[in-house]
Amino acid sequence: MASKGETKNKKRFAASKVAKIRRKSGGKFTVRQSRGPHSASDSIPLAVAIRDLVGAANNIREVKSILNEGKVFVDGRPVKDRRLPVGFMDVISFPSINKYYRVLYDEKGRLIPKEIEAKGSTFKLCKIKNKTAATKNRVQLNLHDGKNIFYDKKCSTGDVLKLELPSLKVLGVYPLIEGSIAYVTGGKHAGEIAVIKSIMGGTMMRRPLAVLEKDGTEFETRKDYVFVLGVKEPAIKL
Length: 238
Prior knowledge:
Layout: E1 9-11, E2 29-31, E3 44-45, H1 46-54, H2 60-68, E4 73-74, E5 77-78, E6 85-86, E7 91-94, E8 99-105, E9 111-116, E10 123-133, E11 139-143, E12 148-150, E13 160-164, E14 170-174, E15 181-184, E16 193-200, E17 209-214, E18 217-222, E19 226-230
Antiparallel strand pairs: 1-2, 3-6, 4-5, 4-7, 7-8, 8-9, 10-11, 10-13, 11-12, 13-14, 15-16, 15-19, 16-17, 17-18
């Protein structure tokens, strides 16, 4: 029998751990993410964010109607794909009702949209995951949300860029160094904001770690979980 293509549904109990949805009620299935800028394990479908988390629609039919009318923007661009994966630091905007949200982690490591002011929707923070050499001696930065941009000024893997939306113009660079303010994106300290005290290199038996301090108490977490928000103060309101 011929393949019918990719299924558009997923059983609720099999949904990603970062999805804040009811798994034993509300129906057997939920929306499956399409292929996009975020991996399935680190994102939620746009329809779930609109219907279940923001509450801008009561059902999928209403979600489709809102999207088809061009009333939803992600990172400053109109979106019509209800299965688009949205992840950490993405900005979801509803200009027609003057509502704006930034996707963050809660204390249980789940993705939730946090309402922000309109001026906060004009930029986002992106972590540099990798740097690659391009033609004409240019450097391409590969960012945590799947974006790739050219940027020739000094920066390192792990640093965070402040990008203007939707142009992706670099407005600032926040280095991964001691004294910077960071947001923890995973582990038992997910969702916490702390100051970086030191960075420890990895070994053959463990990954690199970071020591952070919050309210006079120090704790360790994986370096991969550290997302810099700023140097003296956070670049976003939390």
